[in-house]
Amino acid sequence: MSLVALFVLLVIAIFATVPIGISLGGATILTMDWFTSMDTVVSAQLGITGLDSFTLIAIPYFILAGELMSTGGISRRIVNMAHCFVKNLVGGLAIITTFACTFFAAISGSGPATVSAIGSMMIPEMEKEKYDKAWATAITCCGGIIGVIIPPSIPFVLFGVITGCSIGELFVAGVVPGLLICAVLCLYSFFACKKNSYGVEVATDRGHMSTWATFKDSFAALMTPLIILGGIYAGIFTPTEAAIVANVWALIAGKFIYKELTWKTLKTALKNTALTTSSCLFTIACATSFGYLLTTLQVPAKFASFMMGLTSNKYLIMLMLLAFLLVIGCFMDNITSMTILTPIFVPIVTGLGYSLTHFGVFMTVALAIGFVTPPYGANLFVASGITGLSVTQISKKILPMIGVLILCLLVITFVPQITMWLPSVAYK
To answer: Is-contact 352 314, C-beta < 8 A?
Structure first.
């Protein structure tokens, strides 16, 4: 009865468009008060305890780094550099957009932030070159999901905190899957643009600069992911410390090298970071209490037994988990989903013999696809705000791209070597 009440209250709150953090916290407190003998004070205590982690400090710092990069001229210069390599290809601007999303992802760690930063620059450029506006917006949204796969990744930080898995190893493991998705999206863009005659490009303002001049102008921007990721992989600093280093470098590059970061834009960046961080951490706190209640009601153990009872075939079980995560991603953000579902799924995947690192990447990619699938579709709403297109218009063009992303997810799921090869080399 308690479990039914918990989910009924949660579903009612979600459909009433109550913010997800409040929905989780409210459903947890009411269920504790009405259907159990537990003291509701425990909910608040668990929420505070869930945030009492040094590792979680990385979240606001990486969010701030993304804000500083987008306002300090770094993301634009990364785009300019990418343009030099693919400007003569069919669909070159679409490929540039995907590359730029990948590079910016290695800075921001956020899907919506990547779409906002890159989309505001590249979608108008693609329009000028006779791309279909809705299609251009859709490919930008898909490129944006790489923001939570290529390290530094906020979901990886959270998964590591929940499971005790090495965050550094998760970061390393996310590189190849992220690059795989980038490559496949670029390949899809090439054939789609060729079929629809998009991207018959003419010289733009970027084309007036030589490759060498563009490289010199972009050098400080290109150093950003190298400093962050190189420092982590070399063991110079931890992922949490890397978040602080990212901000220091962003301030130096934006203020003193490119001189585009002003006190006004810094104030805006700090404000946006505060709003995003408070919402994110409040949701994590409430989700921690929610997860505790699920554990108390023995949901993880019961769900694991149920899944194992359906079939003993590990591939079928992983397919069911994959399908479940894809559906959940349509309705909930990845932070909330990961906080709630990780304790439930971990006993299942470890029982099947999968490594936690591989599962962390698999889960992150599966939930990331939720950024481009309605009704949640955070990337779609960000892109809609940038372009003025409706979510429905974007969704029609994004359907084949979602198929491509699911294909990548299947490969990542059932070919673990793609995920585990780099960690096996780095942590040998």
So the answer is: yes
Mean pLDDT of 240-252: 83
The Cα-based distances of 367 to 199, 243, 309 in angstroms read: 31, 23, 25
HEC profile of the chain: CHHHHHHHHHHHHHHCCCCHHHHHHHHHHHHHHHHCCCCCHHHHHHHHHHHCCHHHHHHHHHHHHHHHHHHCCHHHHHHHHHHHHHCCCCCHHHHHHHHHHHHHHHHHCCHHHHHHHHHHHHHHHHHHCCCCHHHHHHHHHHHHHHHHCCCCCHHHHHHHHHHCCCHHHHHHHHHHHHHHHHHHHHHHHHHHHHHHCCCCCCCCHHHHCCHHHHHHHHHHHHHHHHHHHHHHHCCCCCHHHHHHHHHHHHHHHHHHHCCCCCHHHHHHHHHHHHHHHHHHHHHHHHHHHHHHHHHHCCHHHHHHHHHHHHCCCHHHHHHHHHHHHHHHHCCCCHHHHHHHHHHHHHHHHHHCCCCHHHHHHHHHHHHHHHHHCCCCCHHHHHHHHHHCCCHHHHHHHHHHHHHHHHHHHHHHHHCCHHHHHHHHHHCC
Which residues constitute the domain of residue 336? 2-426
**pLDDT, tens digit (0-9, with 9 covering 90-100), for 267-317:** 988 988 888 778 777 877 887 787 778 778 777 667 767 777 777 788 898
- 328/319: higher pLDDT: 319
Number of domains in the chain: 1
Q: Residue 108 has what pLDDT? A: 63
- CA angle at 74 for the pair 72 and 80, rounded to the nearest 5°: 135
